[in-house]
Design a protein that fits this description.
Length: 255
Amino acid sequence: MLELVGQAGGPLADANLWQLDVVDTGLLSPAMQRMVLTAPRLEGIRYMPGQDLMLRVPRPDGKVTNRRYTIRSFNAALPSVTLDVSLHGAGPGTDWIRTARVGERIDAIGPRGKITARVEADWHLFIGDETGMPGALAMIEGLPTTSTLKALLEIDTPADEQEPDFREGQQQQLRWVHRLGQSVPGDASLLRDALAETALPVGVGHVYIAAEAGVVRTLQRELVERGLRQEQISAKAYWRRGLPNAEHGEPLRQD
């Protein structure tokens, strides 16, 4: 770990800047790359399922571009963090993930992010595309055994499906929404139709949306029209169709 130094010159107790080494990398599915990284004292990382790491991706000019990737899992015994990264687009982060080899090192900041599972909810609904899938699966696996949960996850083909490690006792319904060449990433129609066909359980629930910016807005409107309050929806735009992410890792805004 690269220690962060406080004003008095000593190391900060909650230092969160890491020098991570790649210990494993490879295709998890046709559309997803899995990378496992480690660092000294990584077992002390403070992590909640749904949070991400901001990788400081090196550029040829010596500068860095920040890209945020949700932590798929954390193993305190090794210790290591696993990142599952969608390969549906191109850019500094995706290019580095594709070509990085075991032994390469990269700086990262985190864990970051405020969208984590609301364990007090009566039920949970996860909606997302490939970019939101790692966070959704991580939160599903971290929910209590008594949880009632549903998930609508859009992917290219059945070859990209991942079965989460459901906990015994969970009431769960996972639906894979396949594009199969009939739609493209960033088109809201498939997830919108899947949501319309999904009955919401009784009680006060919480919905988590992670996808393209326009898709996120569309699904938020649909849920509000069905009676959910804004505070029952945690939404995150992971990317924006036709526009690159900004240097800080978030989608550029469209004026």
